[in-house]
Amino acid sequence: MRPQAPAEAGAVPRAFSSRHFLKLIEDTGKVGFWSADLRSEHMDASLGLYRILGLDPASGITFGFGLDMIHPEDRAAHGDQIAVLRSGQPISREFRIIRPDRTQRWLLHHAEVILGPDGLPSQGMGVVFDVTERHDAMNALLQRHDRLNALITATGAIFWGTQANGEPTEMAQWMALTGQSFTQIQGLGWMNAVHPDDRPRTHAAWMTAIEHASAYNTDYRILCADGIYRWYNSRGAPVLNKDGSVREWVGVCLSVPGRSRYGLSPSAPDAAGPGPAGQAAAARPANPDPATTRTADGTELLTPAQIRAARGMTGLSKDELAKLANVSVSTLNRLEDESTSVRPRPDTILAVRRSLEKAGVAFTFEPGAKPGIREA
Question: Where are the stretches annotated Disordered (predicted)?
């Protein structure tokens, strides 16, 4: 008998076999293995695979039974796995199963084919991972994202995000509101949509927040894409890294109905925006002809400036107001145009008025004064 060679100095005797390592891996409960003769229905499954499938190891398992466990909604796309393997192709699939106890699990399945002496697919072997926790975490993240989107939609908020240094990153809603391009908002370019009178204060508040990594909260007027200035409250907060440094900024702009906390009203002349519309509003006589401002029953008709200011107070776009009043956008354009000689019918103007009143606006027609608006 050949004598056993002495162990090398420092060598550690091998105490674990591949079976031990396989058991160690499977004991995590997240992985299982199988092998099979592809020309039969029988397959050999590890204890880990039985645990994942929720089956009794003494019951045995076949290819057909495994496929029957696939979720009905996933069966059309993933019920061909045995046929694919028998054709000699490997597979890598992710799908759901329903276990005998009616619980649902997500599986990731990788399998390879071994060819026989005749060159045809003979044996198959695969590994199955339970990836349910990953899917649950992903679904939870998507749910939080959906909730945030629903909240933003419900409040009419304009979401914005910037880098730690204030450089704009996520500003799609701001661009839609103002009509600015992504190039135009870079740096402090977004501030070009802020009313000139509000820019110094807005700039100071934003720079102070960035320098001190503190909350940001201020009101200013925004020149919207339709040419009208509207009041918004912009507020944001820094998102911090674990070391306390700022990773990014996130915030929202909320429409401010009525007067802002700086004592100015959206119905002031500059709220109508620069240009001919604002000039015409300022030039209107203080005592309009009653015949042109009332219906036959004495109900006051709204002036173009009142409608523009009311939309500014409520934050309603032309599309939104048109839908509420059941009129066309072109009709609203005529209603808000000081220079047009074509006036919509009184019942149309009344429909717009009722919609704006329901949105929280009260219209004033005081003797000796211009027609105005206020919060209801």
Answer: 265-300
Range of the domain at 327: 269-375
Q: Which residues contact 282 (CB under 8 A, 6 or more apart)?
A: 269
**What's the CATH number where 371 sits?**
1.10.260.40
Q: 101 is written with which tokens?
A: 């106890």
Confidence of residue 278 (pLDDT cuts 50, 70, 90): very low
More confident site: 158 or 4: 158
Residues 128 and 161 in one domain: no
Domain endpoint, select from 197, 229, 255 = 255
CATH of the domain at 184: 3.30.450.20
Q: What is the pLDDT of residue 109?
A: 94
Answer yes or no: do 176 and 122 share one domain. Answer: no
Q: What is the mean pLDDT of residues 273-296?
A: 40
Please give the residue that has the higher pLDDT: either 228 or 26.
228
Q: Are residues 210 and 293 in the same domain?
A: no
Q: In a 3-state reduction of DSSP, which class is residue 94?
A: strand
For the entire predicted model, the pTM comes to 0.43
Write down the H helix ranges in 156-245. Answer: 172-178, 182-185, 199-212
70 part of a folded domain: yes
Residue 350 within any structural domain of the chain: yes
Query: Mean pLDDT, to the nearest integer, of 125-142?
Result: 88
Angle at which helices 346-358 and 318-325 pack, to 10 degrees? 110
Residue 121 corresponds to which tokens in the numbers above? 């697919």
Query: What are the helix (H) ranges across 27-160?
Result: 47-53, 63-68, 72-78, 81-86, 132-155
- Average pLDDT along the chain: 80
CA-based nearest residue to 250, from 327, 320, 340, 164: 164
Looking at residue 163, what DSSP letter applies? E
Counting Cβ atoms within 10 Å, is residue 241 exposed (0-12), middle (13-18) or buried (19+)?
exposed
Give every CB contact of residue 231 below 8 A, 6+ residues apart in sequence: 219, 220, 221, 222, 255, 256, 260, 264, 266, 271, 312
Q: What is the pLDDT of residues 79-112, one digit of tens each?
A: 899 899 999 999 999 999 999 999 999 999 999 9
Domain tally, the chain: 3
